[in-house]
Design brief:
The complex is a heterodimer.
Chain A (H helix, E strand, L loop, with lengths): L1 E2 L1 H7 L4 H8 L3 H8 L7 H11 L3 H4 E2 L6
Antiparallel strand pairs in A: 1-2
Chain B lengths: L2 E2 L8 H29 L11 H24 L2 H7 L8 H30 L3 H25 L2 H30 L8 H22 L4
Helix pairs in contact in B: 2-4, 2-7, 4-5, 6-7
The chains are: A mainly alpha, B mainly alpha.
Chain lengths: 67, 217
């Protein structure tokens, strides 16, 4: 699973701690998501989409990335 | 730019270093026990004391858990080192330090409980009293485990479930093969303590790998 979490967070100039607080998870979880070590549960994925105001499929995708 | 899930994430260097240190310390402990210890306490000090392979395995696992717990507790008081351990961008908060200490305390408690049956037996404590104490401590440990489970988020719960699942399948596989060999008269019988020692060693090993893969170690 690919994700654009780190880019989206950087665009908003949010810290990992701020995003973790918004999502109600630990910074370890934000870090694991951003480094691709963990794929979120469906409820957490929906929460991420809601916070970034983007559809889930624009944040998470199955395709291999070239970037 | 996107980030993709690592297909085969490399184990962090610190995990390999930890296993390396464990091997070196294990070797040093063996040499100490074989050469220096008999000179210190007398060559016959352990006569009449039966030490099985599972005692050695449980002792190593218990001590490893306790050393790991002490290390995490010490690191948890340094916000920068704790953040580095978890690869976080900014220094750890007081709450993150407290959470790390709670988790480490439970881990160390697991090691202590694992050692107690052997310690009590060597100390000659009455078995009923020893088991009573162990039951009380086990109940306290279970309560702490539930407290940790209730306070962590989905990542740590997922890691715990993955470690438990892998340990179950590896453990039941090993137990089945041994049981089959035992039933066929090819292998000697083993005790519940033997099984438990292997299970805990397996769980420690699997947990370390799962934690590393999830970026928790």
């Amino acid at each position: 699973m690919n994700n654009r979490l780190k880019v989206l967070r950087a665009e908003r100039d949010w810290s990992q701690a701020h995003l973790a607080e918004l999502l109600g998870v630990s910074r370890q979880t934000v870090n694991a998501l951003e480094t691709g070590r963990y794929d979120p549960s469906l409820p957490l994925a929906f929460k991420i989409a809601r916070i970034f105001e983007q559809p889930i499929e624009s944040i998470f995708s199955e395709e291999e990335s070239n970037g | 730019m996107t980030v993709s899930s690592p297909k085969n994430p490399r184990l962090p260097r610190r995990l390999l270093v930890a296993f390396g240190c464990g091997a070196v310390m294990g070797g040093a402990g063996y040499v100490f026990g074989r050469t220096l210890l008999p000179q210190l306490i007398g060559p016959n000090a352990f006569d009449g004391v039966e030490v099985r392979w599972s005692d050695a395995m449980a002792a190593l696992t218990g001590v490893a858990l306790m050393i790991g717990a002490v290390a995490v507790i010490l690191i948890s008081f340094d916000p920068r080192r704790l953040a580095k351990m978890y690869a976080m961008e900014e220094p750890a908060s007081a709450e993150e330090g407290r959470q790390a200490r709670l988790q480490a305390a439970v881990m160390g408690f697991s090691g202590l409980i694992l050692l107690l049956p052997m310690v009590f037996a060597l100390a000659g404590l009455a078995p009923v009293v020893a088991l009573g104490l162990i039951v009380l401590l086990f109940a306290a440990h279970t309560a702490l485990n539930l407290k940790v489970w209730g306070s962590v988020d989905e990542l740590l719960r997922r890691a715990t479930l993955e470690a438990a699942t892998a340990t179950f399948f590896l453990g039941q596989g090993l137990l089945f093969l041994w049981a089959a060999g035992e039933r066929l008269g090819l292998l000697p019988p083993i005790t519940a303590w033997d099984v438990y020692a292997v299970l805990m060693a397996l769980y420690l090993f699997v947990s370390a790998i799962v934690s590393a893969r999830r970026g928790l170690a």
